[in-house]
Here is the input.
Amino acid sequence: MENNSSFLRKIVVVLLILLFFVLQCSVFNSLAMGGIIPNLMIILTSSFGFMRGEKEGLLIGFSCGLLCDIFFGSFLGFYAMVMMYIGFINGKFSRIFYPEDIKLPLALIIVSDISYGLICYILMFLLRGRFHFPYYFTSVILPEALYTIVVTIILYPLILKINQKLEEKEKRSAQKFVS
Here is the structure.
């Protein structure tokens, strides 16, 4: 019984990753503001990290990053590594996560998105001698973080509800297994 709910969770997570990736590449691409789109992969990775813990954050981050690597990366593994660490670090906050409090998720997602932007800048631009950090920060990193937070306010309750439904199913399945 427990394997059915675990299998269901894996299927739902894979579908969410694919859905968020498609939304980011299609719907939100057409809703770009000044060429800036929200980072739905950060929202998903961070959310599952602090809701489910380090291991799940790491795995979802790796999956989201690998998908970005395959379709947009210059080389395989860069985005996977960055997103994996973001998911893992967000997982450290699962011990102080309370579903009814939206302040922690918003703070973690904005910090994650800004960190993601800074890491990408350092490793992709700064090391190649492009020193336009103030411009990059005010024109790319900050606007993306703000847009991501606005979208988080809309999408986070949906992610939370899906996670709660999956946890309820897992608990019921575990009780049947014990009984």
User: Anything to note?
Assistant: Helices lie at 2-25, 27-30, 40-52, 54-72, 78-91, 103-124, 133-178. The mean pLDDT is 92. The CA atoms of residues 8 and 166 lie 8 Å apart. The radius of gyration is 17 Å.
